[in-house]
Structure of Galactitol-1-phosphate 5-dehydrogenase:
Amino acid sequence: MDALVWTERERMEFKDVPRKDLKPGWVRLKVVAVGICGSELSGYLGENSLRVPPLIMGHEFSGVVIEKADNIGFELLGKLVTVNPLISCGNCRTCQKGQQQLCRERKIIGVHLSGAFAQFVDVPANQCFSVKDPYYGALVEPLACSLRAVERVSVKAGDIGIVFGAGIIGLMCMKFMRMMGAQKIIAIDTNNARLMLSKDWGATHLINPLKENALEEIRKAFPQGVDCVVDAVGYSKTRQQAIESLRAGGKVAFIGLHENPSTLTGDIIVRNEIEIYGSFSYCNDDFSKAVAFVNEGLLEDLGNSWLDRRSLQDGNDAFQELISGKSGYSKIMLVP
């Protein structure tokens, strides 16, 4: 089968890869659409220790079920599905508490196992969910991540929020903040094209830190600080700015994932009783909610200027475009 294989830092090769036998309890999908995630950009740059080349990445995807293992019946055979790529053990303490994303034995399709940057991908049958549209279906995974982050900061009606980063995770966080009743939402991004897209997703204020001082603009608009922040970038500077932009008693969720150290001002955190939450991936319940949101049409009124579709064969060029920071798209999907 054709596959886009990450072979070394900043190098993807489009090559023919043999298909393996199906494992018991698994099914095979013909991939229809697969998104490029920000964490995969870090992996592509060799900055993510979880991903080791050679690897077929791709964990945000949809496909048609074309084959099943002999030991199972499967009602979705021949149907369009999306897949929860996070496979947990189901037995440990965190799994039993409904925190499957924190399972020490977790395996993620496209990270620890071969992913969907290919014509076909094998997945556990019980990780499949029926969807109506292949492209929106491939967005369930980032939508679940975003839902979890926004719920971590307990957005309430009338709140003022900030989202650092207008990639797809950031945009989806804005959408959920608005849905949960946020009155004002500040979007912050250095890419002006993506920043302008934020208005369609619920942002009321836009800040490009390359053109203006972000903290000064925040304090000018909201002198007492904001209620909640989601940092979908994950740099040391954005984490510190997130802390400094909050009102006393405010909440921040760090969802941007980089393996760089961060220095935060402890006295601000302590004296202002700032609540800091890590937000990693999603639990099974989050994913199920995201499937329902997508099938109910949550994303269908947003147009498609934020989304571009490319051939899988052109995947390396798409990665290069995204890491340059010049792409005007918040999400690029590859189509085998």
The chain has two domains: 2-139+299-335, 146-278. Residues 146-278 form a domain with the Rossmann fold fold (CATH 3.40.50.720).
